[in-house]
Design brief:
The protein is mainly beta. Helices cover 0% and strands 53% of the residues. Strand 6 and strand 7 form a beta hairpin. It is globular.
Length: 245
């Protein structure tokens, strides 16, 4: 696997940064550039075996138009459980799974027409190796209508994947969709997932999605949330990005 990012790619002294003897900076130069970006430090909670990090929340309102918001991991300090991330918008739309890879779910309703405006929303969490080769992702999708008072469920979709060539396999998976039919206030898709790799050094590395979720609201705004982390001997080599579209 490729080495961690070179010293020349380390953030300058004027930028938000993390420092320490074991900080790993990731090479993200091959990924889609981020616009309007700002960097921040996320503090995780360290147990005896793993660092767990708080939920990421990304939101898009109708007034913002057709944009994609992102949080991308740039560096990690395994000693302090600190992440250096960049948040912003994507310069171009993200790649989404092929239609053949997306499983669709129809709501429990015979109604085929809904008032208001039709819209889609997707929340994706990707994990990469040091060479920015994607090793796993989960993807939640909503198609809905909104009219300012209610949100209406058209259909939902989801996808989940691990790269088998590099020996990733799925250990557990669950998902659900729900519409608050009594008020029409929230339409949501959620995935819980876990992937393992026990090929490297014969010990297990895990990627957790606990959960990945997207929600739609009556005013047309959408919200994506993600709680994700990894553990094991090659966890320090892996980095994530979270995208709401």
């Amino acid at each position: 696997m490729a080495s961690a990012q070179t010293e020349s790619a380390t953030p300058t002294a004027k930028e938000v940064n993390i420092t320490g003897p074991h900080v790993v900076f990731f090479n993200v130069s091959g990924l889609t550039p981020i616009e309007n970006g700002h960097r921040l430090i996320i503090q995780g909670n360290k147990t005896s075996t793993v660092c767990k990090y708080p939920q990421t929340v990304l939101t898009i309102t109708p007034s913002e138009g057709n944009i994609s918001k992102i949080e991308r991991e740039l560096a990690v300090d395994p000693d302090t459980c600190q992440l250096l991330v960049e948040q912003g918008t994507l310069k171009k739309p993200p790649n989404i799974p092929n239609s053949s890879e997306i499983k669709t779910i129809s709501p429990n309703s015979a109604q085929t027409y809904f008032p208001g405006t039709t819209k889609q929303a997707q929340m994706t969490t990707n994990w990469y190796d040091p060479a920015s080769l994607k090793v796993s992702y989960v993807y939640d999708q909503l198609n809905f209508n909104y009219d300012g008072t209610y949100v209406y469920a058209n259909w939902a979709g989801y996808s989940h994947w691990g790269y088998p060539t590099t020996h990733w396999y799925e250990v557990s998976f669950s998902h659900d969709s729900y519409l608050t039919t009594n008020t029409g206030s929230i339409y949501s898709r959620t995935i819980y997932d876990r992937w393992e790799n026990d090929w490297f050094l014969g010990v297990t590395t895990n990627i957790y999605y606990q959960p990945n979720s997207v929600r739609a609201y009556p005013d047309g705004s959408v919200l994506g949330t993600s709680v994700t982390w990894d553990d094991g001997p090659i966890a320090w080599m892996l980095h994530y990005e979270k995208i709401l579209t």
